[in-house]
Amino acid sequence: MILFHRSTWTIIYMRLIYWWIWQGKSAGVCISPGGRFPAFKSEGKPPRKAAKGLRDLTLCRVFRENTCCDVAQTRPAFASMRRLASAGEASQECLDLWEVLECSICHPLVGTKPGPPIMCASFCDTVFRACSDAYFSIDGKTQVLSPCGLNDVMCGRASEWVSNGTELCQLAGFSVQSASFSNHDAEEPFCYGNKASLEAVDGLWKGSGRRSPQKPTSLGMRQDFLRWVRRMTINERLSWAVGLISGLFLLMRRRRLIHRQRQAAVQRTARMLRSRNHPASPNKPT
């Protein structure tokens, strides 16, 4: 197994993109991947240089010379990175690797293949090792794993949701290609994050215009509370959530009871005041 030093991942984008760019343009056309990924505006056209202005890439800018992406693809990736850096409490290594994972959609070879981006199993394992302690949640509608946000209650560490890198990538909406080919195969099948793509180019990451969100130094009281909740196990959080809902229900009943008691007291006081101001007339003698 090949293990990369943490500093290696700071230049991984350039290893990925120049492995392809310097070998010429993609022979295919852009094919929208479906799933959680937005459709390509350049559907049916070859990858090309990203447009400047409002449609320019907000992330993954190392791919802007030859890509199917525009802002529609990079905006959700950037939002994912912000959640991971704040409520997700990810390490810098996890942030670097998750950015590489999210930006796979903008690789020219990935964008010209049907279906979700195909990840190398070894790369997914590396992401899992780096992000196992970061907090994630499952989207209730899409059932996709994504970094925990401030409004998410059911969050857990990646290691609580999945047990390995393959499960992590698949639950996050990607396909995974296992390393089942032999050394005698004529050509290593393409997957994002393979050895060839990582060793092709080096040392160009700093000039890529990277705009990854930085991990904040202070999360505030709300995030401190969320951190405390996320340290619980899944079962503890479920019990806590049930208890919270029950407590809120009892509190609402208590408030309604107090409101009715106050109304009754006001009505009794009003009747008493009326009786004092208008005493009953004595019976006249017959």
From TrEMBL:
Keywords noted in UniProt: Disulfide bond, Signal
Pfam families per record: Folate_rec (PF03024)
Signal peptide stretch: 1-26
Keyword Membrane set for record: no
Domain Folate receptor-like: 53-178
The name this protein goes by in its record: Folate receptor-like domain-containing protein
Native source organism of the sequence: Spirodela intermedia
